[in-house]
Amino acid sequence: MQLAIELPDELGQELLKHADVQEFVKRALEKELSAEKKINQTEQELFALMAKIPGSVSLVDELIQDRRLEAKKEQQDNK
Fold this sequence. Notes:
The model has no long low-confidence stretch (mean pLDDT about 85). By secondary structure, this protein is an all-alpha fold. The protein is built from three helices and no strands. The protein starts with 8 loop residues before the first helix and ends with a helix.
């Protein structure tokens, strides 16, 4: 599948510095999609736990926020 996207000039120039642009973009997208999938799975697990524990909404919201921050930091560290 081919996909065309528009990038800011600076980002495009950085991307073109890589020897194999296609492979680099493929790996970056795979990492990002995998991280997103993990976040979604974690959220679903937390919602399931929330349904079992009365009064746990605020705790679950806090845990979801913590996990999102961890995932964001992990993504930034992988760049």
